[in-house]
Amino acid sequence: MPKVIMYCTAVCPYCVAAERLLVSKGVGEIEKIRIDLDPSQKTTMMEKTGRRTVPQIYIGQTHVGGYDDLAKLDREGGLAPLLAS
After folding, report:
1. Three-class secondary structure of residue 44 per DSSP
2. Are residues 25 and 83 in contact, defined by beta-carbon separation less than 8 angstroms?
3. What secondary structure letter does DSSP report for 2?
4. What is the distance between the alpha carbons of residues 74 and 63, in angstroms, rounded to a whole number?
5. CB atoms within 10 A of CB 64
6. Across all residues in the chain, what is the average pLDDT?
7. Phi first, then psi: what are they for 65, rounded to 5°?
8. Contact 3, 60 (CB under 8 A)
9. Structure pTM?
10. Which contiguous run of DSSP H or E holds residue 24?
11. What average pLDDT score do residues 46-67 get?
12. Torsions phi, psi of 22, nearest 5?
């Protein structure tokens, strides 16, 4: 399973929902980068993704996007193959 990285904050319901979805799909470990604890990481996240909101999720080298993007990918059948790669 590829490495899963999630830029997040402590008080983000979308981050919690994204984590629940990923865990339900068998992801055992999510590397969380807390932008509320390290503001320099928010700048890094924005430079990498072009987005300002959390969560921002990477599966391997693929930027999935936020929770809505992750849920859509799952509904369309694209999440399982990405996790299996």
Report:
1. helix
2. yes
3. -
4. 14
5. 23
6. 97
7. 115, -145
8. yes
9. 0.94
10. helix 13-24
11. 97
12. -65, -45
What's the pLDDT score for residue 85?
A: 83
Q: Tokens 């979805």 map to which residue? A: 21
Two tokens, residue 20: 């629940």
Specify which residues 57 forms β-bridges with: 6, 65
Beta bridge mates, 59: 4, 62
Q: How far is residue 59 CA from its own chain's centroid?
A: 7
The pLDDT assigned to 34 comes to 97
Virtual torsion, Cα 37, 32, 45, 15, nearest 10 deg: -90
8 Å CB contact between 21 and 70:
yes
Domains (range + CATH), the chain: 1-6+29-85 (3.40.30.10)
